[in-house]
Design brief:
Helix content: 40-55%
Order of helices and strands: EHEEHEHEHEHEHEHEHEHEHEHEHHH
CATH topology of the largest domain: Rossmann fold
CATH architecture of the largest domain: 3-Layer(aba) Sandwich
Radius of gyration: 21 Å
CATH class of the largest domain: Alpha Beta
Shape: elongated
Distance between the termini: 11 Å
Number of helices: 14
Strand order of the largest sheet: 3-2-1-4-5-6-7
Structural class: alpha/beta
Number of domains: 2
CATH superfamily of the largest domain: Glycogen Phosphorylase B
Length: 374
């Protein structure tokens, strides 16, 4: 069987969406690689990395150019030519920006396609080609009930053909460890309580980091020395630094810049609480990584974050628009004025393993693709 896979990219940058897409692909390949030929089209990538070494039988086609229009044109033409030549049994579309291509070739050649949806890329889209693409897809895979509901509002026909497959956490890599002394010394953390956020710090995505900074003066008054570490890069950093300076918190707020996913685990070990009061989260694998590391988590209650924390069973949910709730939650956590299970490392880790292990994820992916390919 021939399967064509469309994505904006996996190798140029690795954030939550790229990790989720590539994990779905890896499970599909592991389960059906002997019976299927995979061709993977990647819009923004120019080079492969070691991840590609796991898939010796896969043909990767890279279309990254300095000019984005040329990238899109090259991918579109190559994709259409491959469809004409190979007549694939299935097309997997991993981004709504590429779904129009799938809809077009489906109408022209009678081919089946599915959509793997992540989060904001499918929320609140106006009626148009993307809605048609969702409506006419064979099925849709997404990582949260929240995103599934958002899609169903736009395209009611997808409600009965949407499969929710939450992301998984690598529980071998993310585990309970002592605080990393090298990083403690590097960032001057000895004697301080540590708050951590790991995110793409983008103004568009609104992870709530500004509100955490604004909570710091009150938190410090209540609990003593506190440092807030932000791991990630993005165009919001200048604004966050400016706000920290306005509040006199520039010494308390630490920006690490980008940290590769393979190097993240020691950063989780540093913190006393992980917080990301996002209001636009499709799921939030970073919450689960923190749980697997045995860390207390604070998240927003307005989006897919709820599902990562099992609707509050595994962490503290607050209204991300209410500054007072966030401030109070941080103080309560750092004073251990919360339910004991929510700062019990073993309970948090075992719960994360039970709900978000690779085995659970792989079983769900195998079930979905088995249904399609059979």
């Amino acid at each position: 069987m021939e399967i064509i896979w469309l994505s904006t990219g996996w190798f140029r940058e690795r954030y939550g969406q790229q990790n989720y897409e590539s994990a779905v692909f890896a499970c599909a390949y592991d389960n059906y690689g002997n019976d299927c030929n995979f061709r993977v089209f990647l819009l923004n990538d120019r080079n492969l990395n070691s991840f590609a070494d796991n898939f010796s039988k896969v043909k990767f086609l890279l279309f990254g150019r300095k000019n984005r229009f040329l990238s899109k044109l090259a991918l579109s033409l190559s994709f259409i030519l491959n469809v004409i030549k190979k007549r694939p049994d299935l097309i997997v579309c991993c981004h709504m920006n590429l779904s129009g291509l799938c809809y077009m070739v489906s109408r022209a050649f009678g081919l089946r396609y599915i959509i793997v949806a992540y989060g904001m890329d499918v929320w609140n889209r106006s009626i148009g080609p993307r809605t048609l693409a969702m409506t006419n897809s064979f099925l849709v895979v997404t990582m949260s009930r929240f995103t599934a509901a958002m899609m169903a509002k736009q395209a009611p026909a997808v409600k009965d053909k949407t499969f929710v497959i939450p992301a998984y956490v690598d529980t071998d890599r993310f585990s309970i460890k002592p605080k990393d002394t090298f990083l403690m010394e590097k960032y001057g953390l000895f004697g301080s309580k540590v708050i951590l956020t790991v995110a793409r710090l983008s103004r568009v995505e609104n992870k709530g980091c500004k509100k955490v900074i604004e909570a710091l003066p009150e938190v410090i008054k209540s609990v003593g020395k506190v440092k807030y570490i932000l791991v990630g890069e993005g165009d919001e950093i200048p604004q966050l630094k400016e706000r920290a300076e306005e509040l006199g918190m520039e010494e308390q707020v630490i920006f690490t810049g980008f940290v590769d996913n393979k190097d993240l685990a020691p950063f989780y070990s540093l913190c006393d609480v992980f917080v990301m009061p996002s209001s636009q989260e499709g799921f939030g694998i970073v919450y689960v990584e923190a749980l697997a590391s045995g860390k207390t988590v604070i998240a927003g209650n307005q989006d897919g974050s709820r599902e990562a924390l099992s609707d509050g069973r595994l962490g503290i949910l607050i209204d991300p628009q209410e500054q007072s709730q966030l401030t109070a939650a941080l103080i309560d956590v750092l004073r251990h004025n919360i339910e004991p299970r929510l700062y019990d490392p073993l309970f948090l880790r075992e719960s994360a393993k039970e709900e978000f292990s690779y085995d659970v994820f792989n079983r769900r992916v195998k079930e979905v693709f088995g249904r399609i390919l059979n």
